[in-house]
Design brief:
By secondary structure, the protein is mostly helical. The chain contains five helices and no strands. The protein has helices at about 1-35, 40-60, 80-110, 120-125, 130-150. α1 packs antiparallel against α2, α2 (about 40-60) runs parallel beside α5 (about 130-150) and α3 (about 80-110) runs antiparallel to α5 (about 130-150). The longest helix has about 30 residues, at about 1-35.
């Protein structure tokens, strides 16, 4: 699941970057060349940018591209650094999961309200945070499971489902 999701995030992120670029170029052209600004283009560019950041955050998590403050963990013994990393993953998961409910509640609450220019539901914009949180949680869970399996020597042939199969 991880590689497929990462590929989707990468493609969608690239598409969103391109869409923001196109909207801004069209906006500049209409405003300064035609002297007829498009009233909703700023809003669309902003909302596309919000979604780009949400999807980009998830992709950065999956590719381990986020900036990390490892000045302490890099100086710890390997076992303690591993435990610290695992603890940080759990803390981040707790924070993200605890933010999901309020994010969904806010998006649901704002469902009936429309944005000023595009006249789309605010939920379309606000749901980007819970989507981002969910994707990041999936990547952290996958990363944590991978770390646990590698640490404790989990091998496929040891699982009950693979018993009796030739290696």
């Amino acid at each position: 699941m991880g590689k497929k999701l990462q590929a989707i995030e990468k493609a969608l992120g690239g598409l969103l970057v391109f869409a923001v670029f196109v909207v801004v170029i069209i906006q500049v052209f209409y405003r300064y060349v035609l002297d007829h600004p498009i009233f909703w283009s700023d809003e669309l560019a902003s909302y596309l940018f919000i979604w780009m950041v949400a999807i980009g955050t998830a992709y950065a998590q999956s590719s381990r591209s986020h900036v990390r403050m490892d000045i302490v963990s890099s100086r710890l013994p390997a076992r303690l650094a591993w435990i610290t990393g695992l603890a940080l993953n759990v803390i981040i998961l707790v924070c993200l999961i605890s933010s999901l409910g309020p994010g969904l509640k806010l998006a649901n609450l704002m469902m009936k309200f429309k944005t000023p220019g595009l006249r789309v539901s605010w939920a379309v914009v606000l749901i980007s945070s819970p989507v981002c949180f969910t994707l990041v949680c999936l990547h952290i869970i996958e990363d944590t499971v991978t770390a646990l399996r590698s640490r404790f020597g989990h091998r496929r042939q040891d699982s009950p489902r693979n018993a009796g199969r030739a290696s």
